[in-house]
Amino acid sequence: MSGIFVVAEHRKGVLRDITFEMLKKGRELAGASGESLTALVIGKNTGAFAERIAASADTVIAIDDPKLENFNGEIYQNILSAIIDEHKPLLIMIGHTAAGMDFAPGLAAAKNIAITTDCVDLKLDGQKLTAVRQLYSGKINAEISFKPAESYIVTLRSGIFPPEPSGTSGKLLSAACPDFPESAKRFIEYIEAATGTVDITQADVLVSVGQGIGDVKNIPMMEAFAQALGASLSCSRPVVDRKWLPQERQVGSSGKTVKPKVYLAVGISGAFQHLTAVKADIIIAVNKDPRAPIFNIADYGITGDLLQIIPKLQDAVLKLKGGN
Amino acid sequence: MIQAKELTEKLEMFACMQCGKCSAGCPESGKSGLNIRRIIRELTVSPLCELKQTDPLWDCTSCSACTLRCPRGLQPHELIIGLRGALIETGEIPVTARDSLEAVFKHGNPWGRAKQKREEWTEGLAIKNLSDSQAEILYYVCCAAAYDPRVQNVARSLAGIFNESGSDFGILGIEESCCGSETRRMGEAGLFEMIVEDNMKLFNSRGVKHIVATSPHCFDALKNKYNAEAITVQHYTQYVAGLLDGGKLSLTKNLDKIVAYHDPCYLGKQNDIYDEPREILKAIPGINYLEFDRRREKSLCCEGGGGRMWLEGTNTGERLAETRVKDAAEMGVDIIATACPFCLLTLEDAVKITGFEEKILIKDISELIVEAL
User: Fold this and answer.
1) Structure confidence at residue A194 as a pLDDT band (50, 70, 90)
2) Per CATH, is A200-320 categorized as 3.40.50.720?
3) CATH 3.40.50.620 fits A4-175, yes or no
4) What is the pTM of this model?
5) With an 8 Å Cβ cutoff, are A253 and B112 in contact?
């Protein structure tokens, strides 16, 4: 009934950012409530992970076993079950990721612990936990109060907290791997998303080009810009009609509805049929026409010749990223 | 597999003599796999058919050229609507069409915009609302004119014209809901029935006797599919032509432009309204009025009907609206005038794609009237 536990996540030999994001939030909660912060790392050859994590936690418990080479939600659930029985933590933080969501709900049900998923913030007042999660596609932040309980489980959304180490030098403990029954699930292989096809509906950042880019020969420039920004390239219908980009890239009421965090509309005038399918957090418009309707809904706008603006933006982005 | 026996019987497709006038007049047949004559033939021989989401059925713009040309008086375009309905029942519907239908169901408009914003276009205008006042005429705005900033200008122009002529009109404000025209044409008959019922209840509670509609699509649905015999339904071009005839509106300012009129299919081919829009345009002083070669019954469809505002269909050939703009450019036209929100939008897109953006303007007739007042 005490302590904040963070379940570290790693894949293919790399610790994932969500681990440090949770530790960052966990540290803040621990500081405010006087709880200790413990990280759990489960896998094969976890020594290097544990050392890195120690810079962000008071204690790191490493459970090392050759059988844990690849992720298996059922095995994670069994191991965590044993850990909960032994340590009785107040709060267990798990990433709201494909892996985290594979075992977190089952674990909560098996241990009869209340769970709130996909949290974007947490508050701990004494032993009382409040979580913030989003409703109505992010239009509302709802505060979820837990009934006072001995333990809580939360899953945290990725990318909300900065993944910075807190500079502690935590204790490293290695625990014996609890026994777990044979799992019906078997790891077969990792399948990478095919390169070449792009699902613009899943992109966090979109560079979207319109008729205003003037010529198909400007597409490679826009692709390079999107790449520098870590964005995907989408477009308006006229660009598809002119066959400058394939239909899978079309945003609009007869194309795809997109929900990026940032939508950078380049040379798009902003017809209603297009904008109705853009549900972005931030819209940035670049257009030569200051009266273009896109500026009515854009959060930020640049009026001018995109052929001059885009290379400058690209340079600035590369500089910020510490590139050339 | 879809059993189309009931549908072909209801629509009397066995009377088809396979003359092929339908497919020969179909604006899509030249650029898509859609072949309405063949569909009728296949279904009358074997009513069990295999359809899938990517079927060229979704290419149909519901312009009804086939129906207009059928020497047996059949309605081939209704067969397509019926088959789309069967596809929807099996869940085989393009996702963009599904989303627009869901938006109509949930929000009363196919773009899923907030109901509260439906009267945003009236800002700064004093327009009666039938929820708290009486008026002779219900001005039925249409989802496109209420929400699309480009088409809002048409609604504002019409409100100005009504005011100028001293017409006693009002709107339903945020109570107005989609007419369901495109819902029906996409094949969602059940949702359409629900819409009709709700709208009729609203019309009756507001004592509506006379409706003037912005869009030929709303006009067609309200007039022909609502069974509202007690209500006179007009398209705005009919009403305004009457105002001009009765001397209640005079167009005085010179509009020194070459103008051609594009017939909206839902107004012309489907409701035989060809003359009123032309009378209005010819009454505007200074206009040099030209006719397209493909006009009136033979008018070229803009491809915005039959749900195609929310669908790409399977064909990737040149959009007919682009063909239309190129024809206009050859004729030396300054302005293509039309009287339908969807034509306005598809033609404006086509002007951009064909590179005539600076040379040819697309205007709704109402906008030209306001310029001439």
Assistant:
1) low
2) no
3) yes
4) 0.73
5) no
